[in-house]
Amino acid sequence: MASFLHHLLAHPLTRGLDLDDPATTHIRRAIIEDKPFLKRIYQEWYGAIAGNLPPGPGGIVELGSGAGFLEQSIPGLITSEVFLCPGISLVLDGRRLPFADNSLRAICMSNVFHHIPRARAFLSEASRCLRSGGRIIAIEPWVSPWSRGVYTRLHHEPFDPSAEDWVFSGAGPLSSANGALPWIVFERDRARFETEFRQLRVLSTEGLMPFRYLICGGISTRNVMPAFTWNLWKGIETAMRPAMRSWAMFALIVIEKL
Description:
about 35% helix, alpha/beta
């Protein structure tokens, strides 16, 4: 039933596309621009990322820039992607960052960390490249009683909160994932994270958006609600903030280098 529903609601521009094809990322950017509800979600996310940038010197790098437009909110942003596609500055692998030690003010991303199959390699590189007071700022899927059901039944990406370690296998950079990985590393295994990466500390993990991304269909699915209902749904989510631990589908994660 879930697979039939997903097929029925699939966005016609993404149906049947190879997630690891750079052309798909370009199409996804066009879809964001064409869906006002979804674009406002990204604008809200980008405002949160920009609002958590630390003061002071250093470059600001975004991983996984291909489908987004964070550069509109952060002047001078260094955009990057794992493959060549329009609108990016660098092709790079987050596990081998081409930046000098202590040179970056921030590393930003949205829906990227859970696609990194060796999280420790990225965290080691981030710790090396960030200056003191620099930050990793990410919007990522999150685990809650509500999101478990949504991600395991209605989403195409793997989602395994019970994974024992911070690694996963897969053939492609975008098709490979564990949507629960950010929660595993920064919530479930936070003590392990702080032991292994003593220069990094979790400043905050703020649960977000139990409904709006879902009802707008995200990038791969058709709209379920029209754009004019934005304020209604935002108001509902604002009222739910005290209970967000039980309902969040995403989280704003802020990690700082000591």
